[in-house]
Amino acid sequence: xxxxxxxxxxxxxxxxxxxxxxxxxxxxxxxxxxxxxxxxxxxxxxxxxxxxxxxxxxxxxxxxxxxxxxxxxxxxxxxxxxxxxxxxxxxxxxxxxxxxxxxxxxxxxxxxxxxxxxxxxxxxxxxxxxxxxxxxxxxxxxxxxxxxxxxxxxxxxxxxxxxxxxxxxxxxxxxxxxxxxxxxxxxxxxxxxxxxxx
Length: 198
Description:
By secondary structure, the protein is mainly α. It has helices spanning 2-18, 49-59, 63-67, 74-106, 125-164, and strands at 172-180, 187-195.
């Protein structure tokens, strides 16, 4: 009887497994979502960045500073170059005025702008010669100033691109040091160089 009971149980189990229908749900292939980190810790080293920045600044002043993302330096570059050019033009106009007045005086005329209303000139002929020399010197200085700002613009772009790639560690620091000497109670000033090893 035990065998019959066992056969009946096995028959029901087999009948229930055959009575099941096939599963209609299908599993599709899973897709993976890959998210890239948008935070850039450090730009890769670019050995041509300094020469690119210098070239850009040489072609258009201030473009190297824009390449280095130092936008605040661009107005300084243009102000320096512009001031040099402005003063060159102004001194050139003054030089022409002094020279024209001097030439008219040598020709015997007394109607230049520096002669004045009376019979004696307000500004002497010797002073007109000095004014011409001074205006010529100022013209030259202003061109030198404009060229200096132009060259400093190129050098600054190059150096800034070099230093932008330089890794500055928090482990190296220089701090001012102030101590009072216990022997003579005088202050000792200095700098302390700290270097931390990890």
